[in-house]
Amino acid sequence: MRNWIKGLTMGAAAAAAIATAAWAADFPDRPIGVAVSYGAGGATDFQARIVTMVAGNEEYFGQPMYIVNKPGAGGRVGWNWFANEADADGYMMSAYNVPHFIAQSIKGGVSYSADSFEPVANWGADPAVIVVGNDSEFNTIGDMVDFAKENPGKVTLSGAGLFVGHHIAALQLEKETGAKFAYIPTKGGGAAAMKAVIAGDVMGGINNLSDAFRAREAGNVKILAVADLERNQEFLPDVPTLMEAGYDVDDASVNFRGLMVKKGTPQEVIDKLAAKAPEMFANDRVTKRMKAGGSPVRIMSREEVQAMWKKRQESLKELLAGL
Amino acid sequence: MEFLAYFGGVFEPLSLLLLIGGTVGGLILGATPGLSPTMAVALLIPFTFHLSPTQGLILLGAAYTSTVAGGAVSAILLKIPGAPANIATSLDGNAMAKNGEGARALHLSFLSSGIGGVTGVMLLIFLTPVLASWALEFGPSELFWISILGVTVIGSLDSKSFVKGLLSGCIGLWLSTIGYDDNLGVPRFIFSDSLTGGINIIAALIGLFAIPQVLDMFSKGRQSRDIEQIEVPKHPISKSVGELRRSGRALSIGTIIGSIIGLIPGVGGQIAGLVAYDQSRKFSSQREKFGTGHGEGVIAAESANNAMVGPSLVPLLTLSIPGSPTAAVLLGGLLIHGIFPGSDLFEKHPDVAWTFINSMLIGQILMVIFGIYTAAWAARIARAPMPIMAAAVMVLALFGSYSVQQSMGDVYIMLSLGIGMYFLEKFGFSAAPLVLGLILGPIAEANFIQGSLIANAQNGPFEYFMTGTLNVLLITLVVVSIAYSFWSNMIQGRTSTLAEEAG
Amino acid sequence: MDTSRLQHTFAAVFIFVIAVVVAWISFYQEPADAFLFPRLISVFFAGLAAWNLVRAVAGMAKVGDGMSADTFLKILPGLVIAFVYVFFAARFLGFYLSSWVTFLLLYTLYDPLSPVNVQGWVKRIIVTTCFMVVMYGLFALLLKVQTPRGIWF
User: Fold this and answer.
1) Could you tell me which CATH class the domain A128-226 is placed in?
2) Is pLDDT at B499 greater than 80 in this prediction?
3) What's the structural domain count of chain B?
4) Could A70 and B405 be called an inter-chain contact, meaning their C-beta atoms sit closer than 8 Å?
5) Residue A96 backbone zone (phi > 0: left; psi -120 to 50: alpha; other: beta)
6) Domain membership flag for residue B258
7) Which residues of chain C have a CB within 8 Å of the CB of A33?
8) How far apart are CA B468 and CA B470, in angstroms?
9) Which one in A287, B105, C24, C138 has a CA-CA gap of 20 to 30 Å to A46?
10) Which residues 247-286 of A have a C-beta within 8 angstroms of B?
11) Under CATH, which number does the domain A2-125+256-321 receive?
């Protein structure tokens, strides 16, 4: 019985795919969904809602985009759903978070890899930063690393989960310095990890630049370093990169956010999405709202994202090999 | 008293229009099965793009307060709780509606929501700085004990059988572990593809409460018309006000518990109603009436639900930490307008902050007025003939569970859990403790794991979980709660055996 | 042993089997770290299920009326319709069409008016259509939920 249903479903999907190919010229003729693998109110959800808000304008897609939240297990639930159940017709996209989904696919146990998806465009890049509470005795990243070297495993660092950008940054720092940290994954994304830092549950944390910037504005934390190649001139011009502080940690942990579709989506549809999406992200109203919310914008074309995914795939494989 | 100076902003024509729109819209969205307050507020965010920050927040504030209350409407009339917050409301509220007292249930629910809600917002206005530091006291170990304390309520939540209540809770706890493990991403108990995403709480609620009810209606079979027509006396509002005044104890228990629990980040909103319901039953002189359509049940649950709204925003407004999913969405609404909450919010943007808070205050009052006016009309829904009601709830259950995250898997889970629950109920198990387990399981697990990791980096789990004033206090409460449950269960057992012997 | 006791025993055995399976999976699956919490729960679960079983066998389980054959026969048609509706029809016919059909079927099945009464059919079709229009307005127009379209709508 089940196989019979599966067969029918697949037949219907195949028929739909053929029909879509024929009608790709008219794409899109109905609203487009964007599946976000994190809960409503999280940074990815919040940014996805902003960058898709002008999709309905005639100069972009002429059809609105709506957000569907599928949170759980650090994003695995949402991306698994997307890889297994979503139609490859362009009417359901997904928001990707790199390095999260690539690192998860390297670790295994999920039904997707970087090859399961086709990038459309990138809208933002949120570097990981290292924060401590306002009353912490650590004033530089050097203080923290030295303390961790003397007391292995005693420095607790909160982050938004395992094998997300925050965790990658912690792993890189451990590998580079030889110090041992106690990385504490929290449930509930960057906000929960930040709460743990502010409340003093942990000694420090690794968090999104945007969240950390707001927490510092509110007078709750100190930001010790940013795990990127360059300082963030827009929001945190005074915070050094880990490189400047003398640790050879690159930008592998930077959280890139963008849109992707499933592999097998008609090429015409991908091309249309890839052509219009970067323009949509660059819309004045979008960038204004993003800046107001403290979210760093980085618009990248489909080709640039493809190259970036490839690079991450290699560097993460190497980093995670020993684990 | 600074907030009084900003009341003017709320009464500008456009603001007032938004306030009314937000309240009415919120009531409708809240009453729609499958739409939790979090999703309702998220849906409204795009509307605020076109408004000024103050106006946008008026809309969101009004909508937040009224969606929480609106959830009670479907809980009472259809026995589909709109959100975990409204579970306790459906226990007595739906029983009242079935007795033809839907209007009374709605009146009591809106009035007590209003009183609880205004108290909660008042706490937010006057005690924010004090409460903010208190909310931060709850780290992983404290939250773990809170969820265990919630679990101890399970046994007494089921008034009929202590063992079966606890067992229902265990089933719920187990169901909550289905799906990918949050930390390591390990699949657990995934017997079917639909379960990979775990069990969504809103879809589960619809299944566990609505479906057994539909099957129950089926079991009555074809009935001739005259049996199902209940004589429905008119229910004047003055009578409800009178009943509310006589139920001061339930009202104050609900309001106090709701305010306290609302403050605790990450736990609050979902269990406030259930805990308040349980406590007011324990302290009530008419304990046996709970569950059969008793006013106090609705009053305690709904006053707690709305009392939690104000305090739940304390960590958000002062520390920029969203304490609940809805607060996280509201944070998004603030950020879009370039407003960063923090300790200086009230100095930097007093107009925005105070207008927001005032709009919740006025929103509560508007909500009560609208709710009361439409109650008599809405209560007719519960009197629809049985076949229409059964068919309508079935269709609503499908649409509601699908729209949570547009997933057929959730719909399958909804019906499977619902059918399972129907048979379990036939054998004395009940849905309320099961749902409480389902809600508390992930909270207990996440904090247990997180606490253990931190403890291992410090002086070991014993010191981490067992010492500290708040931990000791919570552990004491857990012990007292368990002891009380056992004791009252024994008393109950003895009286029932005595009754049997006498009979 | 009377029927009620037999039924309660049967239900208790069923739950006990589930509890044992849960415990077994929790303790034998790797990695242990991910199953720490399920282990904790399953111990309590199995213990309580065993206690419940003992009570049921001893005839101490009195809460709950159990199932009578008559009740079961009454809910069976509705249950079958609900089952077909949710697991098959909704996706293949589309949400709105399948809901219209299901609503009408359930209504007809449990309507006191005889199914051969023409007036009854007119009334039922009108009520069903009105309800579905409200559903469409609420979910499709107001909330903009994209529901599966299936073969028609």
Assistant:
1) alpha beta
2) no
3) 1
4) yes
5) beta
6) yes
7) 146
8) 6
9) C138
10) 285
11) 3.40.190.150
